[in-house]
Design goal:
Blueprint lengths: L1 H9 L2 E5 L6 H17 L4 E4 L25 E5 L17 E6 L10 E4 L6 H11 L8 H14 L10 H12 L4 H9 L3 H13 L1 E2 L3 E6 L1 H6 L4 H5 L13 E8 L2 E8 L5 H6 L3 E2 L3 E6 L5 H18 L1
Parallel strand pairs: 1-2, 1-3, 3-4, 4-5, 7-8
Antiparallel strand pairs: 6-7, 8-9, 9-11, 10-11
Helix pairs in contact: 2-3, 2-4, 3-4, 3-5, 4-5
The chain binds adenosine monophosphate (AMP).
The site of adenosine monophosphate has 14 residues, from strand 10 and strand 11.
Length: 313
């Protein structure tokens, strides 16, 4: 952390990247870090770049920059385990690259890395970074709102494994900065009529296998319900927590790609996700299918994983 702070001090231009299809934690870490740097060192030029998210748009707007901006700049990539998931590959144009992440590492991109899987969100890492150097760093309400949003979204509102005393202490620090908990919850909880209708679809159409439940989100369903891909993908939580089904997944068809959002309350799933071109955490991973024909094999691999888990339990 000290070495990261030294690098931040050293560079005049800092460009903060996140991952493709960013979520609340990615935005929270990106915009939170930008706020800390700009508030503490007002003469530095700091940019946040990458794909956008409608869901957490209230946190901030992405900057649009030219390739020249990267000349002599420091790239910081947050919340991204593997280099091909970094949103906006121009991060590599930076003079030096720093990785800050809480996922199980898949590849070791970056000149300097701070990876700690004990943190339940990357936003908590950034908040901790601020806390550790609070005598010399500043954080305003705007940044605190971003970081708080990152912490609550990646912990399922303080419900997931990894939430600790430190998580609450750091969330408390952000509230001290003026975070309006009700405002953020309101922003995150708003739902359109289309989303409610899609929930009905998910509840009526999920498929069950041995200990595994999944829902297929094909292009025609996404179009029929008139929702964004991001909204469709957010349905994964709906089929979690069903008694007797410790693993669940939402399988979403993007143009040219089928992605699996895999979750578990039992067996560790990241190794299986590795086998299918992905990775992530022990209980929350993402991976891919090349086509729908691969689905039966995937389901059977999950069933086997659950069987072994039950036998060992
Ligand atoms: P998601 O279902 O997209 O929320 O992903 C769950 C977790 O797995 C997140 O922490 C992701 O960063 C990680 N993940 C998703 N897709 C991949 C992938 N292709 N490679 C590595 N990690 C991934």
């Amino acid at each position: 952390m000290q070495r990261i702070l030294n690098k931040i001090k050293q560079y005049d231009t800092i460009i903060i990247h996140g991952h493709k299809r960013p979520d609340g934690d990615c935005y929270g870490a990106q915009f939170g870090l930008k706020n800390i740097i700009t508030s503490s060192f007002p003469t530095k030029k700091v940019y946040v770049v990458g794909e956008t998210s409608e869901f957490v748009d209230f946190i901030g707007k992405m900057d649009v920059i030219t390739d020249d901006t990267y000349q002599g700049a420091l790239s910081i990539v947050v919340d991204t385990a593997v280099s091909d998931r970094i949103s906006d590959p121009r991060y590599a144009l930076g003079q030096e690259i720093i990785k800050i992440d809480h996922h199980i590492p898949i590849d070791n991109y970056g000149d300097l890395r701070w990876v700690d899987t004990t943190f339940p969100s990357c936003a908590q890492m950034i908040t901790y970074f601020y806390y550790k150097f609070r005598k010399e760093l500043k954080l305003t309400l705007e940044g605190a709102n971003a970081l708080y949003t990152g912490i609550v979204t990646d912990t399922g509102r303080f419900r997931f494994r990894g939430v600790s005393k430190l998580t609450h202490q750091l969330a408390g620090l952000l509230i001290e900065k003026g975070v309006d908990v009700e405002y953020i919850d309101g922003e995150l909880s708003q739902e359109s009529l289309e989303m409610i209708a899609l929930k009905g679809y998910v509840y009526s159409n999920f498929v069950t296998a041995d200990g595994f439940v999944y829902i297929k989100m094909t292009r025609d369903v996404i179009e029929k319900y008139n929702v964004t891909d991001e909204q469709a993908a957010s349905m994964v939580g709906l089929i979690g927590g069903i008694a007797g089904y410790p693993v669940w997944a939402l399988i979403i068809e993007y143009p040219g790609e089928i992605r699996i959002r895999l979750r578990s309350s039992g067996p560790t799933i990241d190794k299986l996700a590795n086998k299918y071109g992905g990775g992530g955490h022990a209980k929350a991973s993402g991976c891919k299918l090349n086509n729908w024909e691969e689905l039966p094999q995937f389901v059977s691999d999950i069933e086997q994983l659950i069987k072994v888990y039950k036998e060992e339990a």
